[in-house]
TrEMBL record:
This is Uncharacterized protein.
């Protein structure tokens, strides 16, 4: 079986709570791609035992420019495979077309951040 799996991912996002725009390239290690190529027997809560693949990459973006990537699949727990620190995007939000202005936070989110602060390093 030949499966084309990503070797790298590029992400660019706006962290509205800071506000800041980040970018990062995440190299997906060979070990992660091997996990995805390997069919394994797993016990699924609803269907019972089955031979399955890890067929998903989850990309989590956090305040401070933290990027984490996990491999997962139905019935498999998520396995962390990459963790990088993004850099600040010099063009800012909207590719530099907004004059440095970010979308405003929703009132509930703004109230939470004002009360508890930005959750840097929370995961």
């Amino acid at each position: 079986m030949s499966l084309e799996l990503p070797q790298r991912l590029f992400v660019r996002w706006q962290s509205l709570v800071e506000p800041q725009t980040y970018r990062a390239t995440v190299e997906i290690p060979d070990s992660a791609r091997e996990l995805m190529r390997k069919r394994e027997r797993v016990n699924c809560p609803i269907t019972g035992w089955a031979d399955e693949y890890r067929d998903s990459l989850a990309v989590m973006l956090a305040p401070g420019g933290v990027v984490k990537v996990w491999v997962s699949g139905s019935c498999f727990p998520a396995t962390p495979v990459a963790h990088v620190q993004a850099e600040v995007e010099p063009l800012g939000p909207y590719g530099g077309k907004s004059g440095g202005r970010y979308r405003p936070l929703e009132p509930a989110a703004k109230a939470y951040i004002e009360k508890y602060g930005v959750p840097y390093g929370s995961w």
